[in-house]
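anyone seen this seq b4? input:
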Amino acid sequence: MTQYDVRTDAPSVSGWAVGGITFAGVMMIVVGCFQIIAGLVAIFDDSFYVVTQNYTFDLDTTAWGWIHLVLGVLILVSGFYLFAGRTWAAATAVVLAVISAVANFFFIPYYPFWSLLLIGLAVWVIWSLTRPGVVQQT
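predicted toks r here
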């Protein structure tokens, strides 16, 4: 390949866009692993999470475990596809991060600190993927 074979009409990707996508991919993998861990704990040990009385969204902890496990696997896979440069991965990652934040909001009475941590990471992923120029460059 010579210097004349390189296309000059392709837009250059800014360092901020690449950094945002890389950060979001890493955070999606981390959040996915955290969700999987939380899900497995709820599935294997029902008594680990303290169930509050009179909570409106009172699901069995095993049901919450399956929700977190499936969501964690989807988030983990989406994070790897962000690194692969798939164009649909950024939109999927934003949707999954929103779903993760909502699911963890409902999970706050069971494990408050962990849920707030995962909500914060999900918001951080959403912010990093929705900055101008990031999603269009993937």
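The helical segments are 15-44, 61-84, 87-106, 112-130. The two ends are 25 Å apart (CA to CA). kinda curious what u guys think
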